[in-house]
Amino acid sequence: MVTKQHHRTVIIGGGTAGISVAARLRRAGEQDIAVLDPSLHHHYQPLWTLVGGGRAPLKESVRPQKSVMPKGVRWIRRAGAAVDPARQEVTLDDGRTVSYDHLVVCPGIQLDWDRVPGLEAGLGKDGLSSNYLPHTAPATWRFIRRMRSGSAVFSMPTGAIKCGGAPQKIAYLAADHWRRQGVLDKIDVHLVIPGAAIFGVPEFARVLDGVVRRYGINVHYGSEVSEVRPETREVVVTDLGTGGTTALPYDMAHLVPPQSAPDWIKRSPLAGADDPAGYVEIDKHTMRHVRYPNVWALGDAGSSPNSKTGAAVRKQAPVVVENLLATMNGREPTAAYDGYSSCPLTTARNKMLLAEFDYSGRPTPSIPLIDTMRERTDMWYLKRRGLPFLYWNLMLRGLA
Known about the structure:
5-stranded parallel sheet, about 25% strand, about 25% helix, single chain, 7-stranded mixed sheet
């Protein structure tokens, strides 16, 4: 007879959010914490853009999961498959159940490759790649490096995605490389984006408009790639306003899939009834579930309308932990997340624009005495060296 496991706090997901919350809870003295995650490896995903742009090796982005799991935390090496918040149980992918007093949901986001016919099957071959997978990010750089003329297509899907700046960052890194190689004038660079502007915050959009002009990038606003035809090296671009389609040839393409909450989250009572993407329905300030007071969510799977970045998690984690500890002690949650996120937009091989903003959509710079409203070389070093150090040594240990 198998005894059902029970833990005071169960955390679904051992990524950035799950490890950060677990570490903070341990530092606060919590003893009974379980983290559900099947992966043996932990990835620092922001580095994958630099891998694809030839500016970092893939090996720097990964470490053993056991090396980042906080001491004293029970690591259950299975994935969540279902949640019953009424019974306070999580069903694992092997059929076992784990019960909880408090639940933190942060399983990450799902890459919906199948929503773009032809995309997944063609990845890593004949010029088609995506930095959203570790094993295809190096192929991006291989295709960029080999290209001397022709057509290059970069795309961003509709809906929320993790690291919303990544689809255009790789376009700028590629264009800068081609400019330095003296071949940019022989390459037609296309950027397909669903929005009416290059970026949602006007102050940063003005800077990026200048970057686009500098490289001569053809931006297809209000559009998305709806199909890939690898056999003829074409993408089908759909105008989101008219529904009309255009076949765009490519010699090299970096495409990003649509994204949503994991399917099992969509099917659970935790998802919002009116949200087709199926994110865990939480109060956007307290991060507490709107119907189940002992359930919390943060990171990419939560419904809070912030940009889905690691920087957002860094601000969300202390709010979740403070509010969770308050409820454990019979108090109402008072800590509030203001929607802060940052997007380190790499605009050249040694330049970066640090876009920081909150729910209001206004810039919220966090570095004193430095003008971060323009491209800077020192911000490049922050991206390449400073942020990975912060991640591995401070954030995952509950110190930042």
